[in-house]
Write a structure and sequence with these properties.
The protein is α/β, with parallel strands linked by helices. It has one domain: Dehydroquinase, class II (Rossmann fold, 3-Layer(aba) Sandwich). The chain has helices at 21-24, 29-43, 55-67, 85-93, 117-121, 132-143; strands spanning 3-9, 45-51, 72-76, 98-102, 124-127. The protein has a 5-stranded parallel beta sheet, with helices on both faces. Helix 2 (29-43) packs parallel to helix 6 and helix 3 (55-67) packs parallel to helix 4 (85-93). The two termini are 16 Å apart. 35% of the residues are buried. The chain binds 1,3,4-trihydroxy-5-OXO-cyclohexanecarboxylic acid. 1,3,4-trihydroxy-5-OXO-cyclohexanecarboxylic acid binds at residues 12, 76, 78-79, 81, 102-104, 106, 113.
Length: 144
């Protein structure tokens, strides 16, 4: 059976392509999802790419990933990265490994972005590589 990687995207990432393109680039989330699907196929994996502007949805999907036996979770929690102890707890509450991805490098931006709660529970963090970061995260997931 093909193993599934949940790819969870948080608030405002539905606007990729038009949202501050000088920071996040011109690729839409659909473009990124397409790239990931192609790359996952080559790795013999499947991706389930989702986006929500609601913290609780992201938490429910992390629990679902565990219940469904997902191989890994790749998550870009958007601004919840820097605020959500609930997402940190969710990552700690499941056995599915969590990989954190950010298009930009939060450490090179405003100070309020310098803390990552999810990052504290993640097996790996990939930042500042644009959409390629999601592909690198998939490569890492394949090794887990
Ligand atoms: C982001 C970085 C966060 O600080 C920001 O709130 C986002 C996007 C990124 O992918 O670079 O929404 O996660």
């Amino acid at each position: 059976m093909t193993q599934t990687i949940y790819v969870l995207n948080g608030p405002n990432l539905n606007l990729l392509g038009t949202r501050e393109p000088e920071i996040y680039g011109y690729d839409t989330l659909d473009d990124i999802a397409g790239m990931m699907e192609d790359h996952a196929r080559g790795l013999g994996l499947e991706v389930d790419v989702r986006q929500s502007n609601h913290e609780g949805h992201l938490i429910d999907w992390m629990h679902e990933a565990q219940a469904e036996g997902a191989k890994a979770i790749i998550i870009n929690p958007g601004a919840y990265t820097h605020t959500s102890i609930a997402l940190f707890d969710a990552a700690k509450s499941i056995k599915v490994p969590v990989i954190e991805v950010h298009l930009s490098d939060p450490l090179k931006r405003e100070e309020f972005r310098h803390i990552s709660y999810v990052g504290m529970a993640a097996v790996k963090s990939i930042t500042g590589q644009g959409p390629k970061g999601y592909i690198l995260a998939l490569d890492h997931a394949a090794t887990l």
